[in-house]
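Convert to structure. Protein one:
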Amino acid sequence: MAVLTGDEYRESLKAFSPEVYMRGERVDKVWEHPLLRQTVNHMAIGCDLAADPANRGTFSVRSPLVDEDVSRIGHHIQTSLEDLTIKAKLTREVSGRRICAQCMSNMLSVTWAMIYDIDQAHGTDYFPRYREFIKTLQRKGHGIAWGMMDPKGDRSLPPSKQRRPTDLRITERRPDGIVVRGAKLHTTYGAAAHEVVAVPCRALGEDDKDFAVSFAVPIDTKGVKLIARPSPGPSRETDMESPLSSQSSQFIGVECLTIFDDVFVPEERVFMCGEWDQTVKLPFYFAGLHRQSKCACSAGHTDLLIGVAALLADVNGLGTGPSHIRDKITDMMMAATTAYGCAMGAAQEGTAHPSGVYLPDPAIANAGLNHIRSVLGTHLGHIHDIAGGLIVTMPTEADWKNPELRKHMEEALAGSDKYTVEERLRVMHLAQELAASRLTGTLLGFTINAAGSPVTNRIVVRNQYDLEEKIEIAKEISGIA
């Protein structure tokens, strides 16, 4: 059962009883809660894509660890150039349709490399434990919640110097395991996962060794609490409004604040325990692999905006005839293609880590992501410009469903004869959700802060770029000894 179908995934959630809260209230049944429905749908669609025999070799791949097909996006440890290029292609395709591709295989792969390094440096036995954990995940087809980002508190201070520590840390070491306390932010899809995996998010000093911790526990382990933020759509069912984030959609999921309230982790699930000198490794590997995927992901988001922009022009009766519309859409195409090219280029220039994981070139990945991030605001502005003011002033879906009002709207809001008024409004509602709604803020957050903030892109490129070599070349040409 290495690849679950969507229905099997939904059924599998019933075996877990995580402590999930939504809007201040405890959620009893994750799989049927109305404000978690989109998240469950989203995860289920990913399962169906991997389970479809027609997608074998793309969405699913044979795992050498268990000799079974597994989800490429969800569970595969990426060990080749082919893995990186296929994964980037799928990420662009999925993100251009459903906003997020659920790239948990990235997280599992960078952790694989980090834990290998710890064992090599310290003679520990974490790597065999982690490999067994990955095998279990792959055999069961279970999903993970990824806990990487610490709250950080006062960011001018390291975690050990905080007056009120917030970051995840070891509070007790026992012969059979450890006890941890603290929090992790941005736990995407956490409420609909089976396991939670925690890793450090930054380089730590020797005084911070208790914060150098990595482990995995079932999502319903005692003391694990997930405070879920509803996805940015309406809290009611809709037919026309919010097509991406309505309750019955399958396009986007919830984020969680994950609390570890004196959680016991058994020894076999501990993958790092105080090895502070190795914490610098995971952010570096993450900077390459996940940001390579993020280039493709943001290219997919831009593809979606391009399609909406062209359709908006058409329902307004303009097509893509006017030069300013053509130019705007062409600029968006250039940005999407540049970001995707960087995803592929970073893969092509990648190298194999001693653990077997294949890591893309971090400078190319970060440069591409920095570029596509920098133009998202411009692209959203293009949507407004092409749509016109109606994108923020049109009547609501409830008005359209009122027969008395609808006849007036039919008369007042007609556009191109190629489309009915309802079709025009449906396109406007999609554009509104992308460029003028709560989802807009989520999309900005996905683009600007997911995979690390923009300044981290610049730091990686600056650190990886061989400036001294270029200076020496300039000296040589200039005749300077």
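Protein two, convert as well:
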Amino acid sequence: MAQKIDQDVGRFKQIVRGSIKKELRKFISTGELIGRKGKDLVSIPIPRIDIPHFVYGDKQKGGIGQGDGDEGSAVQPGDQDGASKAGNLPGEHLLEVEVSFEELAQILGEELELPRIRPKGAEDLESKTYKYTGMAPTGPESLRHFKRTYRKALRRQIMSGTYDPRRPLIIPVREDRVYRTWKEVVKPRSRALIVYMLDVSGSMGNEQKEIVRLESFWLDAWIRSQYQGVDVRYIIHDAVAREVDRETFFHTRESGGTIISSAYKLFLKILEESYNPEEWNIYPFQFSDGDNWSGNDTEECMNILQKEILPVCNLFCYGQVESEYGSGQYLRDIEAKFPNHETLITSRIPDRNAIVDSIKTFLGKGK
């Protein structure tokens, strides 16, 4: 019976997984999953068929088979002459299932055929864990093994003839106690830093920010699945850059000009203060509509990228979210400066339907 249940559970999970993969592109572009996410799980609606079952009503109320009635009488309010109209359309039944972020990222990787990320410096960092490996006659009471202590006390009382089956009272003495022992295990550990940089000047509207929000959710999910530890930082800028929390990042709207180099300089300051590139795998994602204040600032940006940012990053991703007010010039400038750079990847995101392709472009190298 247990084996049959396990098979049924496994089959159900495969059905759920297949339904998620089938609808994944829709979920990515509409943001339906983002509104359903909890701390560690995502709630996903999938179609289902109800298994027939009895539904019991309130026993205080009358029901079918109670009271007087004639043939053809209505049995529910709204029924006419005991008859109902037939329909030719299926009803919609939805089942809410919860999926972990780890499994969701795995489904994303399979659907988009994403390669596993190859962390840099993974062997340079170490994390310490403790593994219970044996038993000892001494130790802290919090690690006392109750079952083994009980068995040892029972065996001692039986051998000494003090055990009474009519009054099976087992009292362990000091010599009966058994404690768990552990050893320290050192494992290689890699960490990642994700930094999002967003242009919040007047030309970036709500739709452009929603595209960034959707894409960053899936970028987060995949990168987190590849590392044991991930930090995420958020930078917004118009003419001046500042670090903010996630909520502010996606809902702030400024006005005025755009100086992109201000974001790059703040990014470098964050690295200098908190993140050694030799110990962290660094992933900056920049989103803009492509406007910059001047050609001089664009030239400064290119120099900062070439000399200071690209050498320390696993990947630098620039996504251009098109708007009717943005010129889109920055994408042309950056592609002209770095036509085939191994670390720098660009993506044009004209609308929500392009989010899937943009994610695959950014993460498709497995860096």
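The two ends are 46 Å apart (CA to CA). Residues 2-30 form the longest helix (29 residues).
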